[in-house]
């Protein structure tokens, strides 16, 4: 990567991802991801121990391709999924952004997130929170998500979660 | 109204008049929930977990029997114990984690200590306590759950002593547990990673849905459509589902109901080659014979009344239901697989599980949203009766059908039909046992005897 992006550029990228999710501009959200991206929301093995091998332990969501996310976007917008109809209003917050020095042309960005959800079906609010780990690649000057790991702290799930809740 | 009369007004079970009805108060009334806790969950065998979840000396896991917090603990000699998770002194929990390993459980409040068999080994400052003799004569051990037993590594317990043996309680439904346990030469295990979710609905929404074939094509329409989209695009980002081709498969669905509330639903598998177990088919035939191996490849949903279900279809799922109130339920769910499974088989099983199950999958969230919608609809208290327990009535036969005969079972009732028949008779046995247990409990109440406490003086 020639000329590593500034922390401002990295933060702006994460905020834009959150904004696209909350505005339900999910086609543009998908464009932030590389076609062979890894998207991972691991389950917990113990109180403070995450599943570390997705092929030997369970995840909430695990994909090694954008295709899995494309399925979910289609489903959420299809009107055929009871859980996603009506869609909730969501508000993601991303903060505490730090990144490690570029290695092999990629940036490992760590942040904290929360998502407030207003469930229009129940007329109630729910929320989830945790940490993100983005691995960003610089693709023709633009940042792209090569990997995203979402660590979900409050894993007694109220109802259900989907890509737009985390 | 007299409690027994009220209870009998909640279920209509009239085989001659060809009527089976469930009153909506069963799902929404706090008094009914209290009956369920005292006379079902705290009066019969309930499922706690797997032996393999506490494999080593001093391993423990916490669970619930109705409202009672309990601990399953393996002592230093390797024997399992089940005791109530409440210090004898002032009542504090002595185990706080879902799983752990402790030689001694020390109450954090005043320091009373128990070993991994639940025996009291220490009362802090006992010599200086000036206790009266009555204290010294008391048992200070953690309270043992009266009945605790395992069947093929599945652990069950009962707070009440007046229950049949576990084997008798499970009856012929055991055959379906055997069919799970026999898939691995060393049995089955839970895949690491625990998932717990809560929904705003009565626990019996899950109890019914687990053996409800009728909801599949409507509730899971988006999932079926995604399978078709993947097939058309020839993508392989998720392993092929066993439900691929379900629309054209012309599959059969059957059900069996058993004594003591247990039920099983089974069906043809639209794409059996998609099962993680598929490469093991020949060896399963060699070990268990053609008939049992073939049944391992049928879809099977098992309910062990009141709190456990196993679904073997999209993957293999274990569910434990914990009712929280009339309108709230907690589910602990696990992906299961044979011990010693190939890495590739395990990966495939996990991906298929995540695709369908989990509160983050492409199917379970739609079930959950429906349970919550039903509970919201139950606010219409002027509507007394459900219309959801009549499908299949004329197809259900007493005793064994030819499929039950093939596997040597004598269920109370059997049913077979096309998937579109959408059988609802598999729920009936649950409600019969529900009624039987609550009635027995209310009768004991009436004479002042309690199933989980001492007989009244």
Can you describe what's shown?
The complex is a heterodimer of chains A (166) and B (457). Chain A is globular, with a radius of gyration of 16 Å. Chain A has a six-stranded mixed beta sheet. A two-stranded antiparallel sheet of chain A has the order 2-3. Chain A has a single domain, classed as Roll (Nuclear Transport Factor 2, Chain: A), CATH 3.10.450.50. Chain A contains three helices and nine strands, in the order ααββββαβββββ. Chain A is an alpha+beta fold and 166 residues long. The longest helix of chain A has 16 residues. The C terminus of chain B is likely disordered. In chain B, strands 13, 14, 15, 16, 17, 18, 19, 20, 21 and 22 form a ten-stranded antiparallel beta sheet that branches. Chain B has a four-stranded antiparallel beta sheet with strand order 6-5-4-7, with no helix packed on it. Chain B has two domains: 104 residues, Rieske Iron-sulfur Protein (3-layer Sandwich); 271 residues, Naphthalene 1,2-dioxygenase Alpha Subunit, Chain A, domain 1. In chain B, 47% of the residues are buried. The longest helix of chain B has 19 residues. Chain B is α+β, with helices and mostly antiparallel strands. At the A-B interface, β2, β4, α3 and β9 of A face β14, α9, α11 and α12 of B. β9 of chain A pairs parallel with β14 of chain B, so a sheet runs across the interface.
Task: Provide a quick synopsis of the model.
Chain A has a single domain, classed as Nuclear Transport Factor 2, Chain: A (Roll).
Characteristics:
heterodimer, A: Nuclear Transport Factor 2, Chain: A, 6-stranded mixed β-sheet, two-stranded antiparallel sheet, 3 helices, 9 strands, globular, B: Rieske Iron-sulfur Protein, Naphthalene 1,2-dioxygenase Alpha Subunit, Chain A, domain 1, 2 domains, 10-stranded antiparallel β-sheet, 4-stranded antiparallel β-sheet, disordered C terminus
Main pleated-sheet profile of chain B: 10 strands, antiparallel
- Our count of domains of chain A comes out at 1
Report the helical percentage of chain B.
25-40%
Total beta strands of chain B: 22
Q: What's the architecture of the largest domain in chain B in CATH terms? A: Alpha-Beta Complex
Full CATH superfamily name of the largest domain in chain B: Naphthalene 1,2-dioxygenase Alpha Subunit, Chain A, domain 1
List the uncertain runs of chain B.
451-457
Indicate the CATH architecture of chain A: Roll
Give the end-to-end Cα distance of chain B, rounded to a whole number of Å. Answer: 26 Å
Which structural class matches the secondary elements of chain A? alpha+beta
Proportion of residues in β-strands of chain B = 15-25%
CATH fold assignment of chain A: Nuclear Transport Factor 2, Chain: A
Which bin fits the share of residues in helices of chain A? 10-25%
